Amino acid sequence: MLHTSTAGKSSNSKSSREDRISDLPDDVLHHVLGFLRADQAVRTCLLARRWRHLWKSMRCLRINDMGSWRKSTDVFRNKFISCLLLLRDPGSTLDEVEIEYNYSEEYHHSNNGGPPWVGIWIQHALSSRAQVLTVKLTERAYFYLCLYGPLISQYLRRLEISDVRLKSSFLDFSSCSELVDLNIKDCTLDARRILSQSLKHLSISGCAFPPNGSRIRISVPNLVSLQLIKIAGCCGNDGHNDGCILFEGLSHAKNLELIQTYPQMFIFRRDLTWCPIFSNLKTLLMNQWCVQPDFSGLVCMLEHSPVLENLTLQLCKQGIRKCASEVEENPGLLEKPPTISGYLKIIKVKCEGIDDRVCKVLKFLSTFGIEIAIQRTNG
């Protein structure tokens, strides 16, 4: 007959009750809390005495209306977050702040600038030395992001703004000396300019300018990469007929990806008339705009890039017949450009398949006497 030790039972029972998670260092527990929504993180104070005040110094704050907040009122959420911010440890910093939710109907048709507390939360994040800030609201056509003056921070490095309407004062980042990454998505830009001395990466996608508004000016002298994707309302009809709109500001870049998604966005082709010299450009990627309706875009960029080392053409199936017929009618376009960078040793062509237009492009590139690498893509 088997006999079990009472001491063994006691040891196993004690092991089952042991809270090993609470024994982890504060930094590890703060990291775990960073994956939770703000309301979930605060509820951890009920787990044990060890967790009672951990939420007050967590380094990542996520404010959104998912889960239990989905059916709550704006007033409740405002009071909760305001209390959370007031009760936080004033000496703790916030590495990342995410603000994302759908406000209620009372603000949809008002002219008061939308939820006023959003600006307060943002200012608190900046005062807590947040390095990453994400702001996403909905119904962007109905309100302006309510902020008083430009953002001011010596710590903010990455900013993501989505689904809001932005005024000029918000887009002046002159007082954000460490900001290097800015992502603006699905916004209405009611502004004349974007200013930043430190910005290195700028992405503007799915955004629109107010009807009949003046063109926005982007002043970012230290920019390394720029993405302009699905921009609406920027057709260039403001009398700017004697110089570059975009290329002049990119003329000192070392790496460029010039991808145009809408045929009516003719800024690339228009700028070729006053194309500057890209004296530092070593890596260049272009899509089908540079070979439509002929190869003039490709030729111009090659002639103005004297130290180019890597060239990639990314082609899709759009406009195949039209492009092929136009090239066929202009055999002179298949001649090698007079000047091409002596550093260019290989050209990469990415395409879905070898069709008529790709054949025309390859025939033209073969006149360069440079190696061509073809890569098949899936659309």
TrEMBL record:
InterPro entries: F-box-like_dom_sf, F-box_AtFBL13-like, F-box_dom, F-box_SCFL_complex_component, LRR_dom_sf. It comes from the Eukaryota. Residues 18-72 form the F-box domain. Residues 1-20 are annotated as: Disordered. This is F-box domain-containing protein.
